[in-house]
Amino acid sequence: MPGIRALQRVQISQMALNGTTDVATTYWRGLGVLDDTIEVMFPDENIGIIGGVNRSYVPKTGGEISLEGDATFEQLPYIFDAGIQAATPTTDVGGGSGYIYTYNMQWSDTDNISSSDINYLVIEGGDNQQAEIMRSGFVRELTLSGSQGEALMVTALVEGKAVSPATFTSGLSIPTVETILFSKAKLYIDPSSDAVGSTQKSSTILSAELSLTTGWQAIPVGDGSLDFSSVKRVADEGTLNITFEHDASATAEIVNWRAQSERGLRLIIEGNALTSAGTYTYKTLILDVYGKWSDFEPLDESDGNNTVSGTFRIGYSSAAAAKGQLVVVNDLATLP
After folding, report:
1. Cα gap 314→238, rounded to integer Å
2. Is the pTM of this model over 0.90?
3. Is residue 162 pLDDT above 80, yes or no?
């Protein structure tokens, strides 16, 4: 039977090590299409035939997929584990049911920057006509974005080894997930020397977009394979774009931009209540970042409402001895 759009699926799982032959164990509750990035070369040669002959070779194989959709408390750790660092969930010290997944943005050679410090992904994709598989996937680029009245959306560019035909792992259960709602976002801004999350900026944030080039990249060394053999951590880059109401909070940050004052920003979004409360009462996403404003756009408007947008460049703060941290709290000891 020819392929049907409604029968497309993406199945994923974490791999313990780069290069193993794991298969998927769950569904990705979003969108994605595998892209075979194999390189095919047709060499130039002087052989007396107009247009040449069908001589070709393949010097490199690989694959990519953009995992997209509304971000959920249950599956966002798949993305962070494969793009920032592998996190072992800890139980809530306050005695609640929550499991806490903590991801520190790396800045030192003593941090988790070894190729074994991330959890790679195996991804199965396709439809009722053809399934394909890609292993050893890591997140090269990551975006979280949201606006008031909408869900928080995630886009993760995953690079992996060669895409090949496969059969979908059968019998998988569709996991239960909860969408993270951006309308419930709260913004805190403080000097980087103060405790992050001290001062809430009420009724000021209209939208936000976190963009990370994670710093993980494939290293295609000669080892007898056309795939990359290892993954290396190099320099990362991150920005947080925020659209404010044009209010006192916004104008204060414009002053800090012009003065190039270092700031600490926190975005926190809470969801439904955990099974039992402790330090955390609700499922939670926390984004803490340090840096400076690099730009503010001219005054804008939306349906007659004046707004202003700023770009926050994330960087290491000596005052805070940190660059940033992401925290996800859910009710799961293992990812669904």
Report:
1. 5
2. yes
3. yes
